[in-house]
């Protein structure tokens, strides 16, 4: 491994640390014309002359939003390569921040998954290893198909919302009412794509569909013996609640500015669940933020009737069923 290394499969793209900038002969040999600095840096103009230079001011910490910069860094790299020169991407050590930006470019250019991009990158620079937060952001970028316009992507909007909710919870506060994202009011979702719906057991009012059940394990995994199970665990260790996205019928309660509380059916006013903006721990051990739940004992799971069938939806016991990937909506 050198101070700067050629990125496998991308002619003219290099990765390194800040000390790469002092190896002028090596930079000249690599025909470097563009330098992307991914770190908080007091710029020494002499160090970066005569290169086209761009700085992305980020720290190497899990909760830093590097994702928002990927479209810009991808364009800078592409412009440098299209101009016939070489591009150096560097951070302090050439390990985490620069690696994440190079991987984002590889994913965008070659439509590869983050794991594939990292494996390929480590062939020339084995120390490359973005921190856990950046790896999750790369997975999200891949899930969004590496778009150039992040702001318009509903997946990115939802991720930003979840970050803000988590920060509010850590500060012991509910999110601002104008920042709460009611998922059934966003996007156009295919009618009939839900696997099941959840209805109030008392009055049969629809409360949610499977597309709004948050993605987490519900396999009855046991908690550590040292942890006392709270009341959202069934005695058999399985999750006794469905964890949900915020939905519009919850608005009167969620916009009160309380950190936690109970949810009532909007039709019969029966207590059907609860919420905690700071989060709740599921039986799988995952801490889910925000923790917005419906009690399995207070709702029925209804399967849609088969296409062309004459029978009505099947009422399922509260312990049956799990979330299926994908999103959809009905009038909630």
From TrEMBL:
Listed name of the protein: protein-tyrosine-phosphatase
* Catalytic-site annotation from UniProt: 91 (phosphocysteine intermediate)
Q: Which GO terms describe its molecular function?
A: protein tyrosine phosphatase activity; protein tyrosine/serine/threonine phosphatase activity
Ranges for region Disordered = 306-332
- Extract the PANTHER family matched here: DUAL SPECIFICITY PROTEIN PHOSPHATASE 12 (PTHR45848:SF4), DUAL SPECIFICITY PROTEIN PHOSPHATASE 12 FAMILY MEMBER (PTHR45848)
- Keywords (A to Z) from UniProt: Hydrolase, Protein phosphatase
Q: Where is the signal peptide?
A: none
Q: Which Pfam families match?
A: DSPc (PF00782)
Q: Which PROSITE patterns match?
A: TYR_PHOSPHATASE_1 (PS00383), TYR_PHOSPHATASE_2 (PS50056), TYR_PHOSPHATASE_DUAL (PS50054)
EC identifiers of the protein: 3.1.3.48
**Family stated for the protein in its record:** Belongs to the protein-tyrosine phosphatase family. Non-receptor class dual specificity subfamily.
Describe the location of the Tyrosine specific protein phosphatases domain by residue ranges. 67-126
* Residues of the Tyrosine-protein phosphatase domain: 5-147
CC per GO annotation = nucleus
